[in-house]
Design goal:
The structure holds 3 protein chains of 3 kinds.
Chain A: H1 21-38, H2 40-43, H3 80-116, H4 118-133, H5 136-147, H6 151-159, H7 163-180, H8 182-188, H9 193-229, H10 241-249, H11 257-284
Chain B: H1 2-29, H2 33-37, H3 44-54, H4 60-72, H5 86-121, H6 126-140, H7 143-157, H8 173-199, H9 202-209, H10 214-239, H11 241-251, H12 257-267, H13 270-298, H14 300-308
Helix pairs in contact in B: 1-13, 5-6, 5-8, 5-11, 5-13, 6-8, 7-8, 8-10, 9-10, 10-13, 11-12, 12-13, 13-14
Chain C: E1 5-19, E2 26-40, E3 44-48, H1 55-62, E4 70-75, E5 78-79, H2 86-91, E6 95-98, H3 102-105, H4 112-122, H5 128-141, H6 158-170, E7 176-180, H7 188-205, E8 208-213, H8 216-222, E9 225-230, E10 233-238, H9 240-245, H10 250-257, H11 296-300, E11 306-307, E12 312-314, H12 323-327
Parallel strand pairs in C: 3-8, 3-9, 6-7, 7-8
Antiparallel strand pairs in C: 1-2, 1-4, 4-5, 9-10, 10-12, 11-12
The chains are: A mainly alpha, B mainly alpha, C alpha/beta.
């Protein structure tokens, strides 16, 4: 049997699952959230717009509520648990979509800058500077003011939140790979740029990019919930975590559970992803600190 | 030194120009400004008059130049809602925002930095873990949640503090705390890692091996070197003061620039949005400039590099 | 005695302009200032010089990796295409480079079998099983075992890695191999092995080799001809043994005298003056600030590479006279 045809073994150091307790809980929570998001239609007791006018503002089960609505209801009798489930799906969808958009766009720009150098690089760097010069929230608000908001626009907008980080990483690593490294060697073998970037540079910087994505993910959740809270993000009838907090605010005194459930979810999910991201970064790429 | 200043100023100006261009592009891209600013069922003559007065029929580059010169002259348009000058509207809100953000900044600096330093110096001790735990909470809890929770506890349940509006100094307590907490957490974490990185350097070990007392080592070697990256973060925080205020002012119904921005966005009051955009960009650029200058003063390596002529 | 010329480089010049800072002056660095060389099938030309003398840049221009500012390179009679073009890429199958740092030249994430097979994939040579067979035979040719193909670069030693790089370079059976300091990063004990391997491979495959190094001894071992470079020009050219026993250019003499040799007579020549700076070329002969024989002519007139007896060329106004000529 020719050894040249053996399947490739992963080059990463053997992945021993020595998770610290906090990280393990974080991973579990993330998986739970993902499961909820995927299975929302199946596990949600009600539709998120379903009204139950007899049970308006009913508190959660522990505080005098009914089992039919374990987490209580809002002012229109909508079940908080169901809305929470769908909000998780919406917020995660937005966060994933935005993170991936940002990573793809940023990496591509970084590669373009590294490959073409010259004025292309200067243009990309100027854009990076510009991006870093305005707090993203303000930029987002300006765009939302000018363009209004549809969901796809919103996701794309959020996608640009951290693109310059990926661009910087991609550009830096591509340049150092290109100079006297394997990229130069492969180019010298006659490989076209697509092969060089796609089969060589990208896999090698993937772990750094992934860590960056994991660290940016919670930021997007926070951004989205903030904007939705202000009424400028996800619009009704769709519901997201920030959205729910925004509605719940009016009933802060009478029915705090309306906003506490989504608020708690935001906090724990962000915390979980941050902890896992930090741990990933420490293990895979201490240079990102 | 002069060359350094010149290049930094040039970059600052370019950034501002880019922001202005961005606002212009976005404004034009988002549809016919005439239809946006006037309502859809305005009479066609009014729309035509509007277009003429705004020069919307001119070629694009001409519009851009007009737009640019208008801004240079301080004319940023009028608010749609009450027809007042956008600049005036924004300017009168600035003191309210400052009343929140400046004390918050003080909190961030006075709590964040010392705790970060302390945590770094007593690494892995109980205090370190507590501080870091709190810090993590600080940036995973979004400001609006924190604000609402504080209101829930202190205003609703305990009734100690008011929950909104700007009537007395007591009204400022909760918003200031909300604003300051998140930033203090970020700063603590950052200062700690900057200090840890510096403390791990060989020259620190050398200094203490030479017999220099630890306090002096920290004071003379560790702190100044850790200050450099910390200054950058502080600069960023100063530059994004308004951004931070946006959500908090909305939670507490505080009539500042942030709240104005949210309302303007909801109403698509483009002149006001533009104005605030430029204000924020200007603040950010100015604060970055100051940071760059401080950098030059703090980091002798940069001074030398400049003297040698390398960029 | 000249075989069919494989590659000819004439009067290559390469300059870089560097700008000091955003608003600073622009300095022009002349890395290569007029180099001509010819490579023949089955023969090795050694290029020696210290760091900064332009030998690496020359190697890159020979391969077409960089475009010379003046002069040209022709391969098998045809001019070299511009780098990055499909024609240039197709030509890579005919000429390859071996780098100094074998670990840097290999992708950490791919097995060495995959990397050796890669040039075959790029140039669409053979099908999967033919390639696998080829990889196996290449591994054997460079002295590695076939089962080592499934290893990763970081699992091999430095010498083994350089062998892998060689195997990859030979995959498409190139006619020309440019080796830029191929052994400098290796342990001394391994260096000899790798050099022997090179000689064997050349004998078996008949390719031309341009061997670039700062180590005169190593160059002598593998080359049929040696050229010595200083500050972007060739100062002396000849057969290795003759050069070592009878160096005629003052720089070559200094280089040769620095080679440690048990029981050697004669003093070591230590050059005075500043190390060569390509950003500030001296007038006339580039070597004159450090040359013990420098004269007024040397300061003003640049010497050209001229024949000095059989099979030797020197660029000097006062070359060391050969003993035979002296005796005559």
């Amino acid at each position: 049997m020719s050894d040249a045809t053996l399947p490739a073994v992963a080059a990463a150091p053997r992945f021993r699952l020595n998770l610290p307790l906090g990280v393990a809980i974080g991973v579990f929570w993330i998986l739970l959230m993902l499961a909820i998001a995927v299975l929302a239609d199946v596990i949600s007791p009600y539709a998120y717009t379903a009204l139950d006018l007899r049970n308006r503002l009913s508190p959660p089960v522990g505080m005098g509520g009914v089992w039919a609505h374990p987490l209580g209801t809002d002012e229109l009798g909508r079940d908080v648990l169901s809305r929470l489930i769908y909000s998780i799906r919406m917020s995660l969808l937005i966060a994933f979509g935005a993170t991936i958009i940002g990573a793809v766009f940023g990496t591509t720009m970084g590669f373009l800058a590294a490959h073409f150098r010259g004025w292309v690089e200067q243009a990309v760097l100027a854009l990076v500077d510009f991006s870093a010069s305005l707090p993203f929230l303000i930029l987002a608000l300006a765009v939302l003011a000018f363009f209004g908001n549809s969901l796809s626009l919103f996701i794309v907008l959020l996608g640009f939140h951290a693109w310059e980080r990926y661009a910087r990483i991609a550009r830096g690593l591509a340049i150092s790979a290109g100079a006297q490294g394997y990229a130069a060697a492969v180019r010298q073998l006659g490989a076209g740029p697509l092969r060089v970037y796609g089969r060589h540079i990208l896999p090698n910087i993937a772990s750094t990019l992934i860590v960056s994505m994991t660290l940016a993910f919670p930021e997007i959740i926070l951004l989205e919930s903030g904007l939705s809270f202000l009424g400028l993000g996800v619009q009704p009838p769709s519901t997201s975590l920030g959205n729910m907090v925004g509605y719940g605010r009016e009933y802060l005194t009478r029915a705090p559970w309306i906003l506490l459930a989504p608020a708690f979810t935001i906090i724990t999910t962000t915390l979980a992803v941050s902890m896992v991201g930090d741990w990933l970064r420490d293990r895979l790429d201490p240079t990102l600190r | 030194m002069l060359r350094f200043l010149a290049t930094r100023l040039a970059r600052a100006l370019i950034t501002i120009v880019m922001v202005v261009t961005f606002a212009f592009v976005v404004l034009r891209l988002s549809g016919d400004p005439a239809l946006l600013i006037m309502s859809v069922d305005a009479p066609p003559e009014a729309i035509a008059a509007f277009r003429a007065s705004w020069g919307l029929d001119d070629p694009l580059w001409q519009q851009y130049l007009k737009y640019f010169t208008a801004i240079l002259h301080g004319d940023l348009g009028r608010s749609m809602r009450d027809g007042r000058d956008a600049i005036a509207l924004v300017a009168e809100r600035i003191p309210a925002t400052l009343a929140l953000t400046l004390p918050a900044l003080a909190i961030k600096l006075s709590i964040g930095i010392p705790s970060g330093i302390y945590a770094a110096l007593h690494r892995n001790s109980l205090t370190d873990r507590v501080v870091m735990g709190l810090a993590v909470l600080g940036f995973t809890v979004p400001s609006f949640v924190l604000g609402l929770l504080l209101v829930l506890v202190f205003a609703v349940q305990l009734g100690w503090l008011p929950s909104g509006g700007q009537d007395s100094w007591r009204h400022a307590i909760l918003p200031v705390i909300t604003l300051g907490a998140g930033g203090a957490a970020v700063l603590a974490r950052f200062t700690r890692s900057a200090m840890l990185e510096v403390l791990g350097q060989p020259y620190i070990r050398t200094a203490s091996a030479k017999g220099v007392p630890w306090r002096a080592v920290v004071r003379n070697h560790a702190l100044p070197n850790a200050a450099i990256p910390t200054v950058t973060i502080i600069g960023f925080m100063v530059g994004s003061l308004i951004a931070g205020a946006v959500v908090v002012e909305s939670v507490f119904s505080w009539p500042g620039v942030g709240r104005l921005l949210v309302v303007a966005v909801a109403n698509r009051d483009l002149a006001v949005v533009q104005c605030i955009l430029l204000l924020v960009a200007g603040t950010m650029v100015a604060s970055n400039l100051v940071v760059d200058l401080l950098y030059g003063a703090l980091d002798p390596r940069l001074r030398q590099a400049r003297a040698g002529g390398a960029a | 005695m000249r075989d069919a010329g494989l590659l000819e480089a004439k009067d290559l010049v390469r300059r870089y302009s560097m700008r000091q800072g955003l608003l600073g002056r622009i300095t022009e660095v002349t890395a290569v200032a007029g180099v001509s060389l010819a490579l023949e099938r089955g023969r090795t030309l050694g290029l020696v010089g210290e760091s900064g003398c332009g030998k690496s840049t020359t190697g890159r221009m020979v391969l077409g990796l960089e475009v010379p500012d003046a002069g040209g390179v022709s391969f098998q009679g045809k001019p070299m295409p511009k780098p990055g073009t499909p024609a240039w890429r197709a030509m890579r199958a005919r000429m390859q480079m071996v780098f100094q740092d074998p670990l840097g030249a290999l992708d950490r994430r791919m097995t060495i079998a995959e990397q050796i097979a890669e040039p075959l994939v790029i140039h669409a040579i053979g099908n999967a099983s033919e390639r696998a067979a080829r990889v196996e035979s290449l591994l054997r040719d460079v002295g590695l075992r076939a089962d080592q193909g499934s290893r990763y670069p970081h699992e091999l030693s430095g010498g083994q890695r350089q062998r892998v790089v060689l195997a990859r370079a030979l995959a498409t059976e190139p006619a020309l191999l440019v080796c830029d300091e191929p052994i400098s990063a290796l342990d001394i004990s391994i260096q000899a092995q790798v050099m022997n391997l090179l000689v064997e491979l050349q004998a078996a495959r008949g390719m031309a080799i341009l061997f670039i190094s700062h180590d005169l001894r190593a160059v002598r071992q593998v080359s049929d001809r040696v050229a010595v470079m200083y500050l972007g020009t060739i100062v002396e050219e000849g057969s290795p043994d003759a050069l070592l026993h009878d160096p005629r250019h003052p720089y070559t003499r200094a280089l040769v005298s620095a080679i440690p040799h048990p029981g050697k007579q004669g003093e070591r020549i230590v050059l005075q003056g500043d190390p060569p700076n390509p950003a500030a070329r001296p007038t006339g002969c580039a070597f004159h600030p450090r040359c013990p024989l420098a004269s007024v002519q040397c300061r003003s007139e640049t010497p050209t590479l001229r024949d000095d007896g059989a099979d030797r060329r020197v660029a000097c106004h006062h070359p060391h006279a050969s003993p035979i000529a002296e005796a005559a």
